[in-house]
Structure formats: structure tokens, C-alpha cells
Fold each of these.
Amino acid sequence: SYELTQPPSVSVSPGQTARITCSGDALPKQYAYWYQQKPGQAPVLVIYKDSERPSGIPERFSGSSSGTTVTLTISGVQAEDEADYYCQSADSSGTYALFGGGTKLTVL
Amino acid sequence: QVTLKESGPVLVKPTETLTLTCTVSGFSLSNARMGVSWIRQPPGKALEWLAHIFSNDEKSYSTSLKSRLTISKDTSKSQVVLTMTNMDPVDTATYYCARYIVATQFDYWGQGTLVTVSS
């Protein structure tokens, strides 16, 4: 079955750049989306269609795509960015949604 | 203002059927570009997509849970209902409903409702 693979954890110091990857065979054909989830809260969309940023999301959040891997980049990480991040996409037919296993971003 | 709110039991017994309702406002369930989905998250674990329903009543389900899930909607009441049969303790999770822009993203989420499966 189709899966999206993320690293379980990423750690960075404040002000550094965090990069979180997501790999999946259908990603060359389907857009990826990224969600931020803080403890006890619902997920919030931070990137859509691989690299677009919704209104209200800080410019330090960006996304990119290359082949079967998409990357969420957070430039100048702040303490408030500590959260779990999930990528999401669809299968090649677009019928089913799926999520990656999530990456815990720790700000040291 | 778009909002979604989940409601349903907080505790169900093993083998029982879970029924959850998502009440939406700020958009119509008849909007062709949008659907409503259910997503769950066991404590400390990842998000798991369960099902979509769209304006034309087309539905899709997670292949691993398809035999246990039914999604339906009442457009006049702005409600989407998910039923899950034969509940098990491993189904303990926070269940979210979310607005789904067709073939793209979940742009608005409910607050989630924690359902515990225990005898």
C-alpha cells in the first residue's frame, strides 16, 4: 500500500533552519500538504500544493518538491515552531488521502 | 466564518458501534468543490484519514477500515455522520472532522473529540 515516510524527529537551535522531508512514490503526480500540530490542538495547514503558503502563515515556512520527496523548510526557527508536522497527499488516483507518520520538531 | 464541530459519545464499549456527528457552518455541503472528511489520531500517534463525503454524495473510505465505516450527510442540517462498527480499544483516539477541498487539502478542522473504547 502507498505510504508517506517522514523522519520521526528533527532538532534545531533557535534561528537555524529546519528541514523536514516526506517521501512517497505518488508525490511526483500528487501535491503535498503540510500541517502543524501543537499539543492538544487540531492540525493547522501551513503549506499547500507543495509550496504555497496560506494567508496568516509566517514567511519563514516554505515548501519544495523534487521527485518523490517534498520538503518543509522553516527558516529562522522560533521556539513557537516546536510542534509535530505532518505531510499529506493522495494516492495516484486522487481518491484516498493519507498522512505521513509525523515529525516532531524540537527547538533546542 | 467556517467552523466544524464534532459531537458524539466519549466512551463506548468494545463491539459497540460508534456514531459521530460533524456539524458545519460557514459553507454548504452542496458546494461542489468541497467535501467533509473524518480523520483520527490515537493518543501520541499519527493522524489517520478515515473517509470523505462530497457534495454529489460520492464517498471514499480508508481501505484498511472500509468494512467498518459508513459516512453520510444531511445537507439541510449541515451535518456529516460517521459510523464505525465493532469498536475495539485500539480505536481509542481523537476523531476530527475537516473540510476537504476536492483532491487537495484539509483547510478547516474541528476541535476533535476524544473517544475511549473500554468496558
Amino acid sequence: DIQLTQSPSFLSASVGDRVTITCRASQGISSYVAWYQKKPGKAPKLLIYAASTLHSGVPSRFSGSGSGTEFTLTVSSLQPEDFATYYCQQFDSFGPGTKVDIK
Amino acid sequence: EVQLVESGGGLVQPGRSLRLACTVSGFSFSNYAMSWVRQAPGKGLEWVGFTRSKPYGGTTEYAASVKGRFTVSRDDSKSIAYLHMNSLKTEDTAVYYCTRIRISDSHRVHDYWGQGTLVTVSS
């Protein structure tokens, strides 16, 4: 099974900051990583799939990149509604999550 | 508008069974694979299992943690996906989400999610 790690596990940021989250896979068998946003009490939302393709309706401040075993999710200018936990996913595995909190 | 609505959660004793349902609208249910993902209290997301669409054999796959105890099924005539949970354990306590999943040899993407239903396994 693929193991996914995320860094950092927690980050504190301000509105307007540029934020980058990294996801590393134990095996480089696919470039198809997806990223999800999860808020407490709400359903997760797909943000990006195939490493860099924005899901329908997702703001363009979200972007993804990477290949092989290292992938990144970037928020170019953090908005109040972006404070949440972010998960990467590949095949059946989800990463442990990165919580983005208000500084 | 794509909508997925879960139902059937609740409090159940260890060793007992429960069936969750996911009622879908806004897309052609029979053409899509459907999946279940759960989140235990204070934990991350965990994939549980999925069923492929009938054109792709309607076959199922499961996480090791639930294999042999949980079964995913579907009723295309009603646009409903089910998660049958047997021999429940306290560690199965979680919010269970139904998802529409796109599957290929190179990827799996959960593109739409329901709001979730809470299953609590406790004596």
C-alpha cells in the first residue's frame, strides 16, 4: 500500500498569505494525486485532481503541482474561508492532513 | 446539481449490524462508481470501500480494516448506494461519507461527497 505523508501537519497563517503544503508518497507509481479541503462538520470538497487540475468551481487561488513522489498544494492568497484541514489522496490512501489555522 | 444524501447512522452495540444508504440525484447514477469514506473522531479520512458501475462489472473493493465485515452494494433503479456493516467494532465509530468516485488504473478521485452520517458503536 502507498503511504502518504504531509508537511507541515499544522500551520498558522494570515489572510493574504501564500501557503504551500507538501505531500510525499512512499512509492512513485502515479502522478494522480488529489487534494481535498475539510472543515469541521462539513463534507470534504475536492479541490485538485491529477496533481494540477482544478475541480469545477474551485477558486483559481488554489493550485497543485508535482510528480513522482512529491506533490504540493498552494494557496496564492489565503482567504478567511480557506482556514480548514487539507488532505492529499492517491489511490486508496489519504494523507494525515494539514490544518491551516488563523495566526 | 449533484447531491448525495446519507442516512441510516446511529448508535449500535458492538457485534451488531447497520446499513447506511446514500441517495443520489443530479447525475446518471448507473454510470458511476460509488464509494464510502469515513472519519473517526479527531482522526483523518479513511477510504472504506467502493462499487464499480455495472458496465465495469459492478465489482467491489474494500479496505483491509473492513474486508469481510462490510459490503458495498447499489440499486441503480433507485439511485441508491448502500454500506452494509456487520460485526461492528468500537473502532468503526466515525462519520461515514458517501462519495462519487472516478476510477482508472492510474487514479481514484472522490469528486462529490455527501454530508455524512454518524455511526457510534458502543455498549
